[in-house]
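Need the bound structure for zinc ion, inputs here:
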Amino acid sequence: MDQLWTRCNNCRRILYRQDILDNFFVCSACGFHFRLAAVDRLKMLLDESKFKLIDQNIIPKDPLGFEDSMKYSQRLVDNQKSTSLSDAVINAEGTMGGIEVVVSVMEFGFMGGSMGSVVGEKITLAAERALERKVPLIIVSCSGGARMQEGALSLMQLMKTSSAIARFEDVRLPYISVLTDPTTGGVTASFAMLGDINISEPNALIGFAGPRVIEQTIKEKLPKGFQRSEFLLRHGMLDDVVERKNLRPYLIRALRLFLNRPQ
Ligand SMILES: [Zn+2]
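Answer from helper R.:
Posting the output first, comments after.
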């Protein structure tokens, strides 16, 4: 969205870009939630848009020497250039409503937010940092799933991140998972669905396998809206669907409830 005007992906209306920015990157005509860059998400969530980035010195490698239509090592360089990030997640420390938090936000612009070794490591580090500092953890997911270019190493991240999250139970600290459009594959199958509460933005695509694979497997037509957040909420897979403009106050209220702090 670099231009003055932009088109809504949903209602196709032409919108003044500044209006969208002022409206939390949500279409003022139809309520469509535009995808957010990770850094914009942090600015939106944390007090006074202030935060300290952490774990920035972890960079991906190409352990398998993988090559499809291009070398994985080259793909990494290209994505690092286009996003100015080392990989598909950023970790930060800051406060929300005065409460100290550790926040991880995934960046879809970096190889579809796919989870390889670095994403797994950074999610784990964020969890460990929150545990060490005895503060809540919030993870905002946006991912197509495990990163194929790292093969089994990507799949190992499901177990690694899940084990890190499991430790929150023992110390009774809250971990809140926010699922945004899209959250699929190995990310849904690990930390994104393991929150003390799992909440989502409206109309976000959330699932494990894609609808075509499921239809072929079960040989049935899937219902309308299947794998969208409202459908998942109705069927007990999510705790709430929260509009972006309400997300920050919602999270602060949830943190206060979990930590038993006065409202
Ligand atoms: Zn629209």
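Comments: The pocket of zinc ion is lined by residues 8, 10-11, 13, 27, 29-30, 32 (CB under 6 Å). The chain has a mean pLDDT of 96.
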